[in-house]
Amino acid sequence: MFRSHHRDHILAQFEHSLFSGLLAMHWGNARFDRPALDFERFARGVALHDWHYGPLDNHPLGDYDHAEWQAIVERGVVMHYDDPITDAVAKRHLRRLIGTPETQDIQTLLDRLNERIAERRAQTPYSDADFEWADRITRFCDTVAFNLGFENLGWHKASVHARRDDDSETEIAYQITSEGTLRFEPWPFSLPEFGMPLTRYESSGYPDRLQPIVTFVRCIAAEEAGAAE
After folding, report:
1. Which of 101, 106, 154, 198 has the fewest CB atoms inside 10 Å of its own CB, making it the most exposed?
2. Residues 109, 77 contacting (CB under 8 angstroms)
3. Which parts of the chain are beta strand (E)?
4. Helix, strand, coil distribution of the chain in percent, nearest 5
5. CA–CA separation, 218 and 229 (whole Å)
6. Cα distance between residue 46 and residue 154, in whole Å
7. Which 3 state secondary structure label does DSSP give 67?
């Protein structure tokens, strides 16, 4: 779960994942390619990348011990989606988060995860490079949703590959405001603007006593090219 740095609110991992999926679902335009993967199934994998946390997790990011983290990783490795593309997209995200294992237990989990990723990719017509390219978009969507979860207000930057046949990176700046508006420069999405209702909860009593706060999060293009300066 995410404890806001701006107010006494909490955002569950599941809600964070749904917002990530919203960004992925609208990805792509004349300047930014979509992945080679079947697009709907790719976007579903982004939307479900943290499903193993459950709908109302009580795991404060940055504030749980190794045993708790290992249990969360274990659930992610075991989690199985029927569709191999959805499953591989979600599991590649988890593999990236694990990074370099610090214990043998995590290394063992990583080995199992790599085996499952390879098995699921083999059940699709796509290459490992196709999935790796798409994972840059997954990472971008997750990073934006991560900063939104903490309400890290202000401007941030992240990079993606804009073209499937070009390994160069394109930097995207995005601003998070206290009103729930996100501005992007350049604009990497297919619609001129979009959004969704986002449910946070009052920290007091969570998760046993839920006090929801629903706001509409709106994604728009920055008003001018120099807005991020």
Report:
1. 154
2. yes
3. 2-3, 9-11, 154-160, 170-176, 181-185, 193-202, 212-221
4. 40, 20, 40
5. 21
6. 24
7. helix
Per-residue pLDDT tens, the chain, 229 aa: give them.
999 999 999 999 999 999 999 999 999 999 999 999 999 999 999 999 888 888 898 888 877 777 888 888 898 888 889 999 999 999 999 999 888 888 898 899 999 999 999 999 999 999 999 999 999 999 999 999 999 999 999 999 999 999 999 989 999 999 999 999 999 999 999 999 999 999 999 999 999 999 999 999 999 999 743 444 4
CA dihedral 224, 4, 157, 140 (to 10 degrees): -110
Measure the CA–CA gap between 20 and 25, rounded to whole angstroms.
9
Which bin fits 45, alpha (ψ -120 to 50), beta or left (φ > 0)? alpha
| C-beta of residue 147 within 8 angstroms of C-beta of residue 23 | no
Rounded-to-10 torsion of CA 173, 48, 70, 63: 50
Rounded alpha-carbon distances, angstroms, from residue 163 to 19, 27, 31, 94, 142: 24, 13, 8, 24, 20
- Helix (H), strand (E) at residue 97: helix 84-98
Q: Name the CA dihedral angle for 29, 171, 16, 68, rounded to a multiple of 10 degrees.
A: 140
And the tokens for 154? 């202000």
